Amino acid sequence: MTAGALLEVDDLAVHLPIGRSLLRAVDGVSLSIGRGETLGLIGESGSGKTTIGRAILRRAPVMRGRIRFDGVDITRLAGEPLRRLRRRMQPVMQDPYASLNPRMTIGDIVREPLEVHGLAADRAAARAKVASMLRLVGLPEDAAGRYPHAFSGGQRQRIGIARALTLEPDLIVADEPVSALDVSIRAQIVNLMQELQQRLGTAYLFIAHDLVVVRHISHRIAILYCGQIVETASREAIYGNPRHPYTEALLSAILTPLPARQRVRGRIVLKGEIPNPTNVPTGCRFHTRCPYVEERCRIEAPPFEEKAPGHWAACWLR
Q1: Which of 30, 136, 138, 250 is the most exposed place for a label (fewest CB within 10 A)?
Q2: How far is CA 220 from the centre of its chain?
Q3: pTM of structure
């Protein structure tokens, strides 16, 4: 854990009943995020990324583990204390088309959090706050009187960010915030989030599967596989010297305009699918797809160890 971290997650497990089986969506995840820091969380679909974000926001049941926010254990928080906490932790949703109520004006959407938390002193103050937030995300003030259908996907995501920032939170959980946008718009939204972080000091948990975007915005990166973190380090260490075969395979999939470099990165090709979380493999969960697998990997799960200063990974071979 990071000393003085804003968010600390220790041995988090979220197991969900599926008929007679138990879906191990998240199974022993530990991570931390410092104030004003961005932690990128990368993994394939079905790895548990969204579930981690929901658990941190207290929107998914925690079976095991502990979540601490600003030094306070919030794992079992409920009622009014939980409602007050949510002022400080806000989500930015993946789909900008589905996350905005089409029957509400943009002004109503951005103002709603103020009203829910009783922070609007009067209508004039609320309107001024809405106008300020729209300007902050690069939208004109007259956008407040229009409806979501009048805006593009990128503009709608700006509205979602404005809504999340209205309460001046310390942490934003951004779940695939640019995956539904055109490639040409993604960079604009990512740059906006970076500019806002520098101005406001907000911390981000940035959930994604696009490694190029995550590299651009993150300070540190955690690699998730089948409900467990297999590697975490600084952005430079993850992309420059990965210590887990799964991370290497993910980096191999990044396209580059330089053919020679692509051939080097292409040395690892994953086969098969991520394991079913209702029936996870014994030993290392990656052993069913790992090109370097040994007998020990099939039997015994490797410990999550510090391979270099600040660089942690779970692999017997590294």
Answers
A1: 138
A2: 12
A3: 0.92
- C-alpha 44/C-alpha 185 separation (Å) is 23
CB-based contact 182:201 (threshold 8 Å): no
Could you tell me the CA-to-CA distances from 150 to 53, 99, 217, 243 in Å, in that order?
30, 15, 29, 47
Across 219-273, the runs of DSSP E, i.e. the strands, are 220-225, 228-234
CA 66 to chain centre: 18
* Mean pLDDT, 10 residues at a time, the chain of 318 residues: 81 92 94 98 94 97 96 95 94 92 96 92 92 96 96 96 97 95 92 97 95 94 97 96 94 66 57 88 95 94 96 93
Cα(272)–Cα(177) distance, integer angstroms: 27
CA distance 256 to 312: 27
- How far apart, in whole angstroms, are the C-alpha atoms of residue 7 and residue 72? 9
Residue the block writes with tokens 């969204």:
50
> 175 by DSSP, 3-state: which?
strand
Separation between Cα atoms, residue 76 and residue 252, nearest integer Å: 41
